[in-house]
Amino acid sequence: MTVNIEALSQKHLRKSFDCGIPELNRFLQQQARQKTLKQIAKTYVAYQDVEPQKIIGYYTLTGYAVSTPPSHRDYKNYPHTLNAVKLARIAVDSSHQGKHIGELLLIDAIYRTVQVAEQISAIGLYVDPMYPGVIPFYKQYGFLPADPEQRSCKEMWLPVKTCIEIEKTLKS
User: Which of 164, 135, 159 is CA-nearest to residue 66?
Assistant: First the structure.
């Protein structure tokens, strides 16, 4: 079975999605389409070709303004906020967890970040892991602490250069 990813639309069945985290379920079921319609955020869903209406995973992207820590080498002398992409949410239905759907969703988000960077600019992809247990998932793709000097901050980022390298590797 092939897994596809596309923008959330009316055809997708949101009510049956259950990732085990009520907050992420509620967002998809009650807010994701409205935020898309209002151009606040964009949600993409994964589904299998045999059941194109059934959502097996999703992620949400939004624009993000970053005040980069002065210690970051690429932007230390830049005094203004910088454009980035925020991975606001990512979740996989409980029935498909452990099947690399989260990985496919993250790779698709990285690909879309590269598209944004090429068209209007973005310094990278940012994420706020909900739980410390998911941090290793992001680290394996090269995500770095957004502010290494702030140990209490869980925010992470993937520099656009790394996003481009990942995209090129997957295309070859």
Answer: 159
CB atoms within 10 A of CB 112: 20
The pLDDT assigned to 109 comes to 98
Question: Which amino acid does the sequence have at 8?
Answer: L
CA-atom Rg of the chain in angstroms: 16
Quote the CA–CA distance of 107 and 105 in Å, as a whole number.
Answer: 5
In the Cβ-directed half-sphere of 45, how many Cα atoms lie within 13 Å?
Answer: 26
Note whether 57 and 45 are within 8 A (CB).
yes
97: nearest Cα among 11, 21, 14, 29: 21
Q: Which of 108, 117, 121 minimizes the C-alpha distance to 166?
A: 108
What 3-state DSSP class applies to 94?
helix
Cβ neighbours of 150 (radius 10 Å):
11
> Over the stretch 34-78, which tens digit does the pLDDT of each residue have?
999 999 999 999 999 999 999 999 999 999 998 766 567 777 777
Give the whole-angstrom CA distance, residue 2 versus residue 127: 27
Starting at the edge strand that comes first in sequence, how are the strands of the sheet with 124-127 ordered? 3-7, 42-48, 57-66, 82-92, 124-127, 156-159, 144-145
Helices (H), 27-100: 32-37
